[in-house]
Amino acid sequence: MWMPEFIIPFCCIAGSLLPIMPIHKASLPHDYAIKPVPFTDVKLTDQFWKPRIDRMYTVTLPHELDELRITGRDRNFELAALALQTHVDTAHFCTQYPFDDTDLYKVIEGISYALMIRPDPLLKRRMDSLIDLIAAAQEPDGYLYTARTINPLHPHEWSGLQRWENVEKLSHELYNCGHLYQAAAANYIATGDKKLLDVVIKNANLLCHTFGWGKLEKYPGHPEVELGLVSLYRVTGDPRYLQLAKFFLDVRGPGGSTYEQAQQKVVDQRKAVGHAVRAGYLYSAMADVSALTGDTAYVHADHYIWQDIVSTQLYVTGGVGATSNGEAFGEPYELPNLTAYNETCASIANVYFNYRMFLTDADAAYYDVLERTLYNALLSGLSLKGDEFFYPNPLASMGQYSRSPWFGCSCCPTNLARFIPTVGGYFYATRGNDIYVNLYGANQATIHLPEQVVHLHEQTDYPWSGKIRIEVQPEKNEMFAIRLRIPGWARNEPVPSDLYTFTNLSSKTWSIEINGKMIHPSLENGYAVIKRNWQKGDEIVLNLPMEVRTIAANPQVKADIGKIALQRGPLVYCLEWPDNPDHHVLNLIIDPHQHFESHFEANLLNGVEVIQGRAQSARRELDGKIQTTEVHFTAIPYYAWANRGPGEMTVWMAADAHSVQPLPAPTIAYTSTIRASRFSRSLIALHDQILPTHSNDHSVMYFHWWPEKDTTVWVEYDFKQPYTISSSKVYWYDDHPQGGCSVPDSWELYYQQQGKWLPVENLTPYETRKDTLNVVKFKPVHTSALRMVIRLNKQYATGIYEWEVE
Question: Which of 46, 199, 210, 710 could form a disulfide with 794 if both were Cys (CB 3.0 to 4.6 A apart)?
């Protein structure tokens, strides 16, 4: 029987290895070859990451604690505890999703990490009150799932009538457990308090009793419990938890859904498929179990999957999960921009996956992807103030996207809250007497080697500057190696594949000095290896070229043909409306061969380096011709967009007239005001003059009424002035049966006359064909407004790409 006092010296939490002072000495029989330097040993002093971590204490975590209360997430635990105490179970789950419990768990985890950096009595008190709620909501045998406990006879509709009945699909019972375990491990390490850990051990023992070969042989539909069990194994040393994590991997597939990565045994999988967050958590767990059991079959599969992602599925921002249909990976090279999903949680999962692959192989290629994701797709999910968030992170906007302080499904804000405090843990790692320097930023680090302690003091303005000074202070003068990662972008390789290439090769190269003397170290797996007898006060100066680079995508990425992206250092840039002529950017043509200027703007977006150059502004005329005028453009780091309100944005910029999206011609539709029975910023799609290639084209913006069905809806144009009109065209959006939209049952047009809506006298039928414009002609009417009234299908909503009026 495991005793709580028995602890393992290191605990893997989320992405970092955290130190624990062992009461009894113990070592794991297997583990990663590379040992991370925990974030508690890396004091960030920079002006990029440190302010974001500071805002966790003052803004983000307090804000999210308030949202837990306002939205009723903590109330669910109160109701569950009340049902257990009174044996009265007539209440109802008061939030939207059965996984809403995890928002408490992730906030507790984030606060726990924050407390490891510095104390905050108020945050700790609020965290402890949440832990009390959680403990009170646990059933006697350890089961903890408020969506059922509140009212067992009428649980959440996703939960199933019996425990674990729907665990492979919608219940998220095991997913909830995983986040609970990670929160408890972090909390115990941070505080030494076992209250939440005791809750978790009771719950995990229930899982061990319930699941396994010859028991309940089911896998979790949403992977996460595997990572939680690994964390619990590292804290407790109880091998049952590692064995159960392995079981949940082994029982998955074949014959299941690709959405849950259950189409094959995990060791046989070679492609990234399905829900991108689930995938990232699963692939990370495979690496963990491989490292801790010594069974290399899991990480062998991971190598193939990783190569598939970086070769065909990775956005230039490092985001993954191209499509909103299932929040999933798309087909190879399917990387749309305007409708890119790139869930923030998927970026966090991508960091976890690449981190573990580095711990396995010690190859800088994994950190090239990790850094790209970290500085771009992931960081985009958090506003500069720290209290608004993105769920999807598109690479283009026509004004339909804006940040939100919270979501009905709010996994992304709480995931950021547990990730950002641990950023320092990704900077360094060790293997024997080798120190790996993986990320750059001003910091003071304490690094433990087998025979001594080395202090590193790094000074730099990275990511704005490529000059990095590292003062080495070993406690003993002796031989060891420092391995400096030379980023792929500094070696003319934006990613470790041919998915993206630089079109302007750097005229400069990286360089290293030791105590003022230039050296030429060997490059091994992307690391400059400096092995010498280090003495106190030795100084390394690394210079990385920070020129503005232009990027082209592989021609198989159809969405990016004829376009370029801009990168400087690790940062991908975008054009955003406030900085550019007439507040439009999608209509700009950028000459990739020009000389780009960059400079630091201290008062813009908390201080950013901007890129500036020349562009052609394109506009379509009524006769169809495109007119251009010369303008100047300003680009900002992608992570900083949408902090000044909604508007146009693009990462991929047209490099020629064939690829540009000109400003629409001033047609009747384009100059009209749009109203509808359901408001959405995506209403602007109706008159953007961009037609899809088919009715399920996710590279083009559309407006929809989902989840409405079996009802009547409407949309109307209020004209700029009265016109005589006689025809109209509509292109329907239809993604059924996989999605929730279909062409409608019927539609009609009404025109406004003396304040009344009258039907037009149509001369041709109202058609509802997919994959084409549906044209209706009617007797001419003189009016100032036109309304489309739509009857929805009994089972589906509908949507519209384009609505033209003539």
Answer: 710
